[in-house]
Amino acid sequence: MPREAVAGLKSCKIFAIEDQIDHKAQLELNKAVHFTKGKSLATELPAIDYERILEFFEKEFKISKAAFDKSYAPMIPLALSINMTRMSLGEKVKYYDLELLLLAKKYKLKTYSLETIERESQAIQAFPMKDQEIALLHSINNFEKQKSEYKQLESAYIQGDMDKVFEYSLHPTENNPTFIEEFYTKRNLEWFPKIESMMKEAPSFIAIGVSHLEGEKGILNLLKEKGYSITAIKVSR
Predict the structure, then answer these.
(1) Residue 235: left if φ>0, alpha if ψ -120 to 50, beta else—which one?
(2) What is the C-alpha to C-alpha distance for residues 15 and 106, in angstroms, rounded to an integer?
(3) pTM for the full model?
(4) How is the chain classified by DSSP, letter by letter?
(5) 117-165 pLDDT, tens digit each
(6) Which residues of 103-140 are buried (b: 16+ CB within 10 A; e: fewer)?
């Protein structure tokens, strides 16, 4: 955890993350990213496309067809697309929202979530299944490029180039306008009044995904439109 983030947290009275992190929330999210009972990628995709996915996971991740059928086929295409990038990174993935929440509780900050896990699930389910399937196959067919773009995303984030970060983060969903509207725009607009209310109450530390920051309806631009000044803080690596 960057020391600047810890120092910033210590200086605040309120901490907020996107949604709940508890057993019930995890169960609800797990439900949202899986097909209903009796359905899977094997039943919902054309046989030729499913075979392509099986071959890819066996070659790229050494996951046998039997193991894929059992553990991965029940996942909706969007969840699988996201997991592919995480799997390629191995142990390098860190979940800073959980670490920050634990620190916030340690420092006795008031802690909030900006939405219920059911709201995030609703946003995920608003992404049409056919569009998810197209995006998944696009990711598989362009996976080497996607991995390279993730490295560029990391570099852009360190340099403070949020436009590039937002652009690259949308590539696994092929910049689908429905997904952008449902998963980012609408949720940002719902969160903003809550964020502003917290900021007016006391110094606040708001931890949200970087893809929610940029864009015309991103949180940073919404703050600017209300007259707030934005200052980027460089952190140690």
Answers:
(1) beta
(2) 12
(3) 0.85
(4) --HHHHHHHHT-SEEEEEE--SHHHHHHHHHHTBPPTT--HHHHS-HHHHHHHHHHHHHHH---HHHHHHHTTTB-HHHHHHHHHHHHHGGG---HHHHHHHHHHHTT-EEEEEE-HHHHHHHHHTS-HHHHHHHHHHHHHTHHHHHHHHHHHHHHHHHT-HHHHHHHHTGGGTT-HHHIIIIIIHHHHHHHHHHHHHHHHS-EEEE--GGGTSSTTSHHHHHHHTT----------
(5) 889 889 988 888 899 999 899 889 988 888 888 788 778 877 778 778 7
(6) bbeeeebeebbbbebebbbbbbeebeeebbbbbbbbbb
Low-confidence residues of the chain: pLDDT under 50: none
Q: Report d(CA 171, CA 168) in Å as an integer.
A: 5
Question: How far is Cα 54 from Cα 45, in angstroms, rounded to an integer?
Answer: 12
pLDDT at 81: 86
Under 8 Å CB-to-CB from 17, ≥6 apart: which residues?
97, 100, 101, 111, 112, 113, 114, 207, 208
pLDDT of 87 reads 83
Which two tokens mark 166? 């937002």
For 211, other C-beta atoms within 10 Å of its C-beta total 20
Predicted confidence at residue 172, as pLDDT, reads 63
Confidence at residue 163, expressed as pLDDT on a 0 to 100 scale? 79
Q: Please provide the size of the chain in residues.
A: 237
